[in-house]
């Protein structure tokens, strides 16, 4: 019996929750109000998440189908899984996107898919959806396509003409892990596709000789997703792989997806505890590497097993392990030093550097910048405040660790 559109939407939107890389920050701003058409984009991002100003940003996040010819051990939609299957036609995805937008439910589309028939066939249908939304319906909202690395370069290049962002999943942190748990996927093919996509993005970003204008091709760049906890790789290995990906392929973002064992799995996979907190710490460490000047080795050197501390955020854990670097005088320290103070974000540091040109800063000034004084007091010196030997206290770590919580049996 054929499932209704509503039933298939429930199945395929639920199946898409395992795709993590769906932010759109970095795309070009488009507005249909002046030029006609449908939809618009905002640089702050689209996904079921919150923008910096607190707005909830939404998109239609679905799979074209959860049928798949591959049997990746960590994937809920693998060919040997007994999940309920469903499939959309390209026309149905287009209709859903337009109707959801007209009802103000979404601001864009995030589309992924299992592999059906072949990589080229699946990619061709996804490209067709994006192409018709843009060229026939003049849809100007955000579009993110999960590209298939085994698909032809021609199809991936065409996808970049219509999508704001393309992503190609690296799958697992190591080639050995991919070979063990996803043997039908080839790491060399994945990296080759990511490299070709980077070259195309850079090529299209160059101004043309005739018009001096830059052509639009995946303006929000490319990202990737990495499954965390399926192959036993430690956090140092995961973050080292991410650093190489950022450097080699110009990625906008590596997304970490915590693995939990699939109940009906016929393959035994190790579980690294606890998956969601580990995912959160990896995102924090990734942020320190990209925006705070930390090396991966610095972030992961705190524990001998190559894992991040789950009880403390990575910057605080680093600071407690390098107490000789503190306290920092906020009225004199350089930007690079201030960025390493626990509790200071990039906006806080910018505010400190701007404000101290006019006066010497006190704790009250930090409070007005939104800083948690409890977190920073042991690590800073400012006008009217010195921590004395607070940073040397033997129980300083215990002050920041989460308190034990009594769990209910009901």
UniProtKB/TrEMBL annotation:
Cross-referenced SMART domains: Elp3 (SM00729)
GO molecular function, one term: metal ion binding
Keywords linked to the UniProt accession: Iron, Iron-sulfur, Metal-binding, S-adenosyl-L-methionine
Recorded superkingdom: Bacteria
Cofactor: [4Fe-4S] cluster
Stretches assigned to the Elp3/MiaA/NifB-like radical SAM core domain: 58-285
Transmembrane parts of this sequence: none
Gene3D superfamilies tied to this protein: Aldolase class I, Photosystem II 12 kDa extrinsic protein
PANTHER family: ENDONUCLEASE/EXONUCLEASE/PHOSPHATASE FAMILY DOMAIN-CONTAINING PROTEIN 1 (PTHR21180), TYPE II SECRETION SYSTEM PROTEIN K (PTHR21180:SF9)
Listed name of the protein: Putative DNA modification/repair radical SAM protein
Organism: Aliirhizobium smilacinae
